[in-house]
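chain below, 294 aa
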Amino acid sequence: RGRGTTYPEALAVQVEQSETPEETLKALMDEHIHTVANHFRGRVDVWDVVNEHLSSMIDDNTFYTTLGNDYVRYAFETTATYLSDDTRLVWNEALANFNLDDPTISWWLDALRTFKEENVPIDGIGVQGHNINQKHNITELAIFLQAVVDIGYDVELTEVDAPITLFSDQEDPFKEQADFFQEYANACLSTGRCKGITFWGLDDDNTWYDGLFIETKSNLPLLIDEEGYVKPAWLGVRNAFESSAKEQEAGEHDVEGDKNNGDETSTASYHHSVSAFYRLILPLLGVLGFLLMA
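prediction:
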C-alpha cells in the first residue's frame, strides 16, 4: 500500500510564493505523482491518493484553499494516468464520528456522489479506525459504511487500533477488546464490499500510542502482544472473517490467517497460543520494506 500521492500539509511555501498558485500547484502535483508512480510501478497494489483531506480542509490545506474540490478530482485523475488500471486508488479519511447528520459527513457523502457521477477514478474509501480517547459508535460506523457502498464505492478500514485502557473498567479488558474488534470488523464485512482491514502497527511492543501517551506503556492497542503472541483481539477479528465467509459464497472474501476451529477469546487461552503466522511474516515484511525503499 502506498501513501500518499498528495498530502494536505505539503507545498504551502511554494504555492504561496507563486504568482500563479493554481498552475504551480498542479505542476508540482503532476511532477510528484509521476515520479512516485514510476518508481513504484508494479510493486504497489493500492494507493491512498487523498489522505486526511477532511481533517485539514478548514485549516491549512494548501490543496483545498488553492483548488477547492478540483484538488481531489485532479489528484485522482492524474494518479490514474500514471498507474495501471488494476491499481486501486483510495480516498483515506480520518473522522471524529460517523453520524450521517454530522455536517462533515453529509458534505463528504455529497462530494462522493458528485465524483461518482463525474466518473472520477476513485475505487474505494478508506476509513481510519483510531479509537484514541473513546470507542467509535459501531452502529453509526456500519450505517456510514453502507451509505458509502450504496453510492457505489468499495470500503475498507485503515489504521485500526484501540488501547486496552478503553476497556479497563471491564472485568476482562482483553475479552472486551476482542469483542470490540470483532464488531468493528463486522461493520465493514457486512457491506459485502469490504476490501481490507488494516491495523496501525504489528504488535503492542512498538506502537504510536507510546509516543502519544508517554506516561504509560500499557496501551496494548493491537492484535499481537509485546512478546509476539496472539491476543483475544486477533481471535475476535478472525472470527469476524470466518463468520462472513460462511455467510457468503466462497471466494467473495479473501479469508486469511489462523484457521483453527476454536473461537475462544478468553485471556487465559491467548497466553498459550503463539502465532506461527506472525513469526513467519515478520522477516518477509522486513524484506518487503527494504525493497520498497530501494
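The beta strands are 2-3, 46-51, 88-93, 124-130, 154-161, 194-199. The mean pLDDT is 84.
thats it, cya
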